[in-house]
Every structure is written in C-alpha cells, then in structure tokens.
C-alpha cells in the first residue's frame, strides 16, 4: 500500500485506520524495522481484542522473526500485561492496540527490554525511516537466521506479580462494579481479582473491539454513566472503569461520583511512601491537583513536577529513582512495575485502602481531594502561539502571580492556578484551572477562557 507514515507514526506510538492507512504488510515491515533498530535477538508481542489485532500482530512477528529475532506471542493481553512480559522476560515488546480509539483504528505501542518506552526520540523515528525506505525499495534480504515464533500465556504470572505488590488478601468484603467497556479489562480482571474478598458486578466484559455499548474511554463523562447508575443500583462500595487496552483505571465512589485521578494519585502516593519507609520521590505532572505535592510532603516524600505525557514521566521516574508517578489522565506509574503505567495496580491500591478501614470511599478520598478543579477544557484557536502570548501579556505584570513555561504556560497565585497547553496534533489550547473554592475557580477559568477565545 502507498502509506503515508507521517500520518500514523505519532510521538509515542503507531496509530491509524486499518486498512486505509496501514495493513498487515506494513506491520511486517514495522516488525523487521523494530528488530533492526533495537538490535533485539528476541521480542515479545501481544494484542488487544480489535478485529484487526491478531492479523497485525502476527505480521509484525513474521517481520521480526525474518530479521533473526525469536518471537514470544502472548496473545490477548492488556497493555500493562505486555509491559509485565517485557519486564519479567527482559525483552523488547510490541503491543497492538489503539487504546480508546474507535474500532477502525489500530496501533503499536513499542518498548525496549524492561518496558522502557520507544518514542520519537528513542527509536521510533528510526523505525519509521527504515519502514519508509523498505516501502520504496522492497523489504530487506534474509537475515543469517530466521527467528522462532512461540506462544506463551503470561496472564497468571502478571496477576500474581500485581498481587505481590499490594496486600489485598486481608481486606474486608467489598462489592465492586467493574466496567470493562468491552475491552481488555474483561480479560484481565477475572484473573487478577480471583480469590479476593470481592463481589464483582461485571459490566461489558465481553471482548468486542467494535465497542457496542460505549467508547472505552472513561475520562469522557458520557462513558461512565452506566457504571455510575449500576453502582447506585447495586449499593456497591465503588466502581472501576478501564479503557480499551486496560492500562488506565477510573474510579467512582459509592454514590456514583467520579473520584478525580489526582485524588487517586495522592492516595496511592501516600501508600507507596508508607511501603518505602516514608521516603521516596513521587512524580506528578503539572496539571495534577495541588493536593498531590501537599500529600507527598505530609507523608515524608519529595514531589517532582513534570510535563504532561508518559515519556516525560517515565524518563523522570528512571532518572530520579521515583517510586510512583501519577497523571491527571488516570495513568499511574510504579517503580516496582519497571516504571511503567498500570491502572490495575492502582485499582488494587484503592481496594486495599478502602477495604482496610470501615468507612466509605467518599469519606476516605476527601482528604485527597482538597481543591476545586475545572477539568480539561479544549478551545479551538486559529493561532496557538498568539493566544498564549495574549495570556502571558495579561498576567505578566501582576505582582500577585508567577508564570512558568515548563509545559505551555502556568499562572500561579496564592489561592489558584491555571495552565494552558497547546495540542501537538490539533489547533487546540487545553485549559486546566484549580482554586481553593468553586467561586474562585469559576472566576479564574472564565477570565482565562475569555482571553483564549479572544
């Protein structure tokens, strides 16, 4: 096919419509290029439940084996299960998924051994260049040897590893509604939760990459309506929602109210610090709540603020030796999980925290949810740089605020802050605001939006 790889090779992964933008022939070239660039003698490959995933992952495996690498196919898995396999087996890996994108899409998330990310600056650009070259001139000649392709099931080992990191066996019985969104949570949750004192009410556990019930993106409020209703109907203690490849987890309390990912970050940070003797670095991106660094300091830890994006978090995790990191988008990263993100491990922490005391989840997380946030508000703009300049000009001369440009522009005062970041892929500015009370947050949010929207 005459593929335009600039359209499908993104900052952190490959993602596009199948077969319009890419197909199995191109997946095979990606497999060969992945081995060539990483120098891998062996790789591990997994895939989600999308109709195109088995064929694409099989083609990638053939391409990798053709360049001499031995391939371990782990079949259906969540993205964090692939990271587990990469870490436990010490192998570079490739996960075929388009996360929460619609059914027509598919993609590849690639990593080096130990789940170290492969992005534009860490090999993905070179993989794209090789694939483009081979698209034009034909695939490379045969390697000195052809690798083997074998199958291995890692689900039980993945579940056992997660349960070894959180003591959930002694918690009180809990009723939990789990919305898998027809994604990979329906595959992993039954095994990870097996034997725990949980009454699990399953929602949409049937693996179906056409997503017949709702998009598998729990950050969109429309996609957790069913979960919220079911939690209330069942009188459940909490609800969990996973995205399509089950690497993100979103939590609702016993009232069906969403628990902000920042509050989950703060809760898990406190627990991870306790596990590590009250010492350790905790990473948080710059649009998580003020609560996160406050809780980290209160529990003896050192908060480190980073840009938004998993490549920045993972790089900082590695360089600082951080024990945990969290993002506003419900990605949670653990040192004990090769610095990779796993929503399932965060979910186990929430279950352990709730089940280890008699109160409700809403009462438990109140101490980790101290401020009022706007959530992320997107505005389409004609000129991102000009609107950012307008905000900078509006606030630069004020003695009561500070400005920083770690990622976009952050304006901070004593009782509030907001951040405006440009999208890398769309003509959007993303606003996040937070304040000590609702009225202040509303005022700050509306002032910023008035400037952004001109």
Architecture overview:
This protein folds into 4 domains: 5-153, Alpha-D-Glucose-1,6-Bisphosphate, Chain A, domain 3; 157-165 and 174-255, Alpha-D-Glucose-1,6-Bisphosphate, subunit A, domain 3 (Alpha-D-Glucose-1,6-Bisphosphate, Chain A, domain 3), CATH 3.40.120; 261-368, Alpha-D-Glucose-1,6-Bisphosphate, subunit A, domain 3 (Alpha-D-Glucose-1,6-Bisphosphate, Chain A, domain 3, 3-Layer(aba) Sandwich), CATH 3.40.120.10; 372-452, Alpha-D-phosphohexomutase, C-terminal domain (TATA-Binding Protein), CATH 3.30.310. The chain contains 15 helices and 22 strands. It has helices at 5-8, 24-38, 53-66, 79-89, 124-137, 155-164, 185-192, 225-234, 261-275, 291-298, 310-320, 343-355, 361-365, 384-396, 438-452, and strands spanning 14-17, 42-47, 70-76, 93-96, 105-112, 116-117, 149-151, 174-179, 198-203, 238-242, 249-252, 258-259, 281-285, 302-306, 324-326, 332-334, 372-373, 377-380, 402-404, 409-412, 416-422, 428-435. Helix 2 packs across helix 3, helix 2 packs across helix 5 (124-137) and helix 9 runs parallel beside helix 10. It is globular. It starts with a helix and ends with a helix. Pfam families: PGM_PMM_I (PF02878), PGM_PMM_II (PF02879), PGM_PMM_III (PF02880), PGM_PMM_IV (PF00408).
């Amino acid at each position: 096919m005459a593929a335009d790889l600039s359209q499908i090779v993104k900052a952190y992964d490959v993602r596009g419509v199948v077969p319009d933008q890419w197909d199995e022939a191109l997946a095979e070239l990606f497999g060969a290029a992945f081995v060539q660039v990483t120098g891998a003698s062996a790789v591990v490959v997994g895939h989600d439940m999308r109709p195109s995933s088995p064929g694409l992952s099989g083609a990638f495996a053939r391409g990798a084996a053709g360049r001499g690498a031995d391939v371990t196919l782990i079949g259906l898995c969540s993205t964090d299960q692939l990271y587990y396999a990469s870490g436990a087996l010490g192998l570079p890996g490739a996960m075929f998924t388009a996360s929460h994108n619609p059914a027509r899409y598919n993609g590849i998330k690639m990593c080096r051994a130990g789940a170290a990310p492969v992005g534009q600056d860490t090999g993905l650009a070179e993989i794209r260049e090789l694939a483009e070259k081979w698209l034009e001139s034909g695939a490379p000649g045969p390697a000195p040897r052809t690798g083997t392709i074998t199958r291995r099931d890692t689900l039980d080992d993945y579940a056992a590893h997660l349960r070894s990191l959180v003591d959930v066996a002694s918690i009180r019985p809990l009723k939990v509604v789990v919305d898998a969104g027809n994604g990979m949570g329906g595959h992993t949750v039954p095994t990870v939760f097996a034997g725990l004192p949980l009454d699990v009410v399953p929602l949409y556990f049937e693996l179906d990459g056409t997503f017949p019930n709702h998009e598998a993106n729990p950050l969109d409020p429309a996609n957790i309506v069913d979960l919220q209703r079911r939690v209330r109907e069942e009188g459940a203690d909490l609800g969990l929602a996973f995205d399509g490849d089950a690497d993100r987890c979103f939590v609702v309390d016993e009232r069906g109210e969403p628990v902000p990912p920042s509050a989950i970050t703060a809760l898990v940070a406190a627990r991870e610090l306790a596990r590590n003797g009250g010492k350790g670095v905790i990473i948080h991106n710059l649009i998580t709540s003020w609560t996160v660094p406050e809780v980290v300091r209160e529990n003896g830890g050192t908060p480190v603020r980073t840009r938004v994006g998993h490549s920045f978090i993972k790089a900082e995790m590695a360089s600082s030796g951080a024990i945990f990191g969290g993002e506003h988008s419900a990605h949670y990263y653990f040192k004990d999980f090769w610095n990779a993100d796993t929503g399932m491990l965060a979910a186990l922490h929430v279950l352990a925290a709730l089940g280890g005391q008699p109160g409700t989840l809403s009462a438990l997380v109140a101490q980790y949810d101290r401020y009022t946030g706007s959530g992320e508000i997107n505005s389409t703009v004609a000129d991102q740089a000009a609107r950012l300049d307008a905000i900078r000009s509006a606030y630069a001369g004020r003695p009561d605020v500070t400005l920083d440009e770690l990622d976009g522009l952050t304006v901070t005062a004593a009782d509030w802050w907001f951040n405006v970041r440009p999208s890398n892929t769309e003509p959007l500015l993303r606003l996040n605001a937070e304040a000590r009370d609702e009225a202040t947050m509303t005022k700050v949010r509306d002032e910023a939006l008035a400037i952004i929207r001109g």
